[in-house]
Request: fold
Amino acid sequence: MVIWVVAGVSLLLALMALSSARRLSKKLETLSQSYWELRYDYTRLRSQLARLDPDQPDAEPPPPAAPPSVTFVPLSSMRKKDVEQGS
Reply:
């Protein structure tokens, strides 16, 4: 009899955890969507403001570009060097 009580309580706790996870997932989805809408609106308004007053400098400088960790090297340029060295 004790085993059935433990199993029932475990099942109840699992269902409660599942419903809680679903609610949090929906909340996170809503929050994420609101964030991206706000970013879109901010960028759109900033560009409109820049068009209205192009002489005014940006209040927020653009972030510095990070150097790429891997550079692109076309295979054709590598092949030319190999052919030149082989001759």
